[in-house]
Design goal:
single chain; 2 domains; 5% strand
């Protein structure tokens, strides 16, 4: 889904801001005139901090093989990588736009912003679908488990990246900074828009994006996880009556719960903004005329980034290997810090004692030299007296 203002426009602005003599300017103000600007900046900062630290830890734990490398961990690493891209590239842009009235980042970043948003959303939703297929085969079709090996999982991740990167290239072509007249400042300010010559084409594209990123993956995920749930319930009943052996371990149950929680968090975070974008494209609502809808749209956009901060927390709560690895890393860092402090204190005490011993030895040498000088002087006096 495009992260920019996604309404296409075929009507000209109030004045022709594209003329060479049109007054174009970016107004540096205390931010868009919403009372919740500071709240948005603080929330973006909190989400960025939690998401960056958490997803970096997830990638580090998987890439350093501190957990068993399985198809599930490969897909989780891909999700963490997607979240890092969103946090590192798009969150700073969103925060920067809170300080200005108008788009100041230029056409290139306007295109990149829309492109990364659509690619990452499509990539994440398809990865969740593949994870559902993986668990479906592992639980409902265990004899076909060989279809999803680690090499196949890596290949599928690469295919997803190539597919989404090619399919979602429209923002690189259509996005541009358009200048519009701003009456209070009597000047033109820039906005990042996805520009379409035809409103019908814009609607077709956004319906396609919504279907590709959201609707079709949702239906597939619902099918696979509902099938898994039905199969697990039937198997539990058969185990209760002694018809089959218990096969569903606690670890597998926890991993399944984790995946369901990740899927639920993803759709809770993305559904409001996706619906709002679709309504704006079809001109069902206008955020500039409906009271408080512009502020609400800012929070819907903020909510899309919350999944990047929530996912690492879910991994730590449900995945026992992740939890154990994080505890080991925390205890190791604590021990290292304690060892560094104690080592520093020991070295300090040793150096203090060494300097004291050196000064004491020098003092003893000085005393011995003084005694030898006195003895030599007495010896010389005695020899002179003997001569006399």
């Amino acid at each position: 889904m495009n992260f920019n203002a996604t309404t296409s426009s075929t009507s000209p602005p109030i004045i022709n801001c594209s003329l060479p003599n049109a007054p174009k300017n970016v107004i540096m103000v205390a931010g868009p005139q919403e009372p919740d600007r500071i709240a948005l900046i603080v929330l973006y900062f909190v989400i960025f901090t939690i998401g960056f630290v958490g997803n970096s830890l997830v990638c580090f734990i998987i890439l350093t093989k501190r957990v068993a490398i399985t198809t599930t961990t490969i897909f989780l690493c891909n999700l963490a990588f997607i979240d890092l891209i969103l946090l590192l590239s798009l969150v700073p842009m969103k925060v920067a736009r809170q300080f200005t009235l108008g788009y100041i980042l230029g056409t290139a970043l306007c295109k990149i912003e829309g492109y990364l948003g659509t690619v990452c959303l499509a990539n994440a939703s398809l990865t969740l679908v593949v994870m559902g297929v993986d668990k479906y085969i592992a639980i409902a079709k265990p004899f076909k488990r060989h279809y999803f090996r680690k090499r196949w999982a890596i290949a599928i991740v690469c295919i997803i990246w190539i597919l989404t990167s090619l399919v979602m290239m429209v923002p690189l072509i259509n996005n541009a900074v358009e200048y519009f007249y701003y009456q209070p400042a009597a000047t033109c300010i820039g906005f990042c828009y996805s520009y379409w010559n035809s409103l019908v084409a814009a609607r077709i594209y956004y319906v396609f994006v919504l279907s590709f990123d959201f609707i079709c993956p949702s239906l597939m995920i619902i099918y696979f996880y509902s099938t898994i749930a039905i199969y697990v319930i039937k198997t539990k009943r058969m185990h209760r009556y002694g018809l089959v052996k218990k096969f569903y371990s606690r670890r597998k149950r926890q991993i399944l719960k984790m995946l369901i929680a990740v899927v639920a968090a993803f759709y809770v975070c993305w559904t409001p903004y996706s619906i709002l974008t679709l309504l704006r494209v079809f001109r069902t609502i206008n955020i500039n005329t409906v009271p408080y809808l512009r502020q609400l749209s800012n929070y819907f956009l903020l909510l899309t980034f919350c999944s990047a901060a929530i996912n690492p927390i879910i991994y730590g709560l449900y995945h026992e290997n992740f939890k154990a690895s994080m505890k080991l890393m925390y205890s190791a860092s604590t021990r290292t810090h304690s060892y560094t402090i104690s080592r520093t204190r020991t070295i300090s005490r040793t150096s203090t004692a060494g300097s004291f011993n050196a000064r004491n030895a020098e003092r003893q040498k000085s005393i011995m030299r003084h005694k030898l000088a006195v003895l030599r002087a007495n010896s010389n006096q005695q020899s002179e007296v003997a001569k006399v």
